[in-house]
Fold GDP-mannose-dependent alpha-mannosyltransferase.
Amino acid sequence: MRVVIVTESFFPQVNGVTNSVRHVVDRLLATGHQPLVIAPGPGPSAYRNVPVVRVRSMALPRYASFPVGLPDPVVERTMAEFRPDVVHLASPIALGAIGLKAAQRLGIPTVAIYQTDISGFAKQYGLRAEPAISRWVGRIHRRADRTLAPSTVSMDQLRGMGVGDLHRWGRGVDLDLFSPARRCDDLREKWTRGDRNQVVIGYVGRLAAEKQVRRLAALGDLPGTRLVVVGDGPERALLGRALPGARFTGMLGGEDLARAFASLDVFVHTGEAETFCQTVQEAQASGVPVVAPAAGGPLDLVDHGRTGLLYTPGSGASLRRSVERLTDDAELRSRLGSAGCDAVSRRSWADVVDELVQHYAAVVRTPLLDAA
């Protein structure tokens, strides 16, 4: 099958959308399909010999490292020349809307992947545009032939927007990379300055307003603990002041990231606008107990009291109580970590992308009429 993937983000940007597209491309290649990527630039023109066609872009205000695709005739021209069987719209909002129009003009069926709660993010940046953004997102997904959403909450959001032909499609986890076996005593000793009795509490992800990392301040004075923050982003300097006792590692990838995950004793996620929350899965695959807000994607990923703990969204006191339960109870940490690891053991990217290909095949066989 020939697949054009129109994505709002790709390398050199590293985020959830980029990582998902990368894994989709990897599996498509491994199973004999022919992908092509269209992405906002600048950036590499190929990934693993797969063409990456770059379109005009502009920097997003207050998030300069995130380029937004602009209308560009190269999108439709590329599709016409490549002649794909299906167009995959990865987290469509700007470039995805352009790709959708081009695919419709050419009569190519589309599968749209809902991945980013743009209206929720806008709220965190103080933008009063939630209703307008929701209308725009709903319009895109109503016009796609099929929409795949990662969680129960996101499916409910899309149903409320009138989106039809809606299916649940989660995310895979790299089980070869993330593993309890990656735990590293030397790294822990570096973090704790040699105090092996300290419980290491960690956050992994972008340091941006929508992730609400500042809420980790509720844990700053927990006795016998060390706070580690893995990642980078526009709030790095602010967080350095808000979390003066934390160890900031900067952005990590590959085996360095896997070692960091597995070397934590407790993983904490703070953001409440997650349609899925991939870092929860990666922590679970690493055998680390998870504490996450009872909102969005984590509601599907964390079975409270069995594979992790959920706390009341927006409550620093609830977050602190949940983390204290784990810092005070090594047996509970071990039990939740093991159960979480078992829960994700059947969520490989290979299985997840093979499921995605079945959705491609469904729209290729029976393209739907415009639902808008």
Q: What stands out?
A: The domain at 180-343 is CATH 3.40.50.2000 (Rossmann fold). The two ends are 28 Å apart (CA to CA).
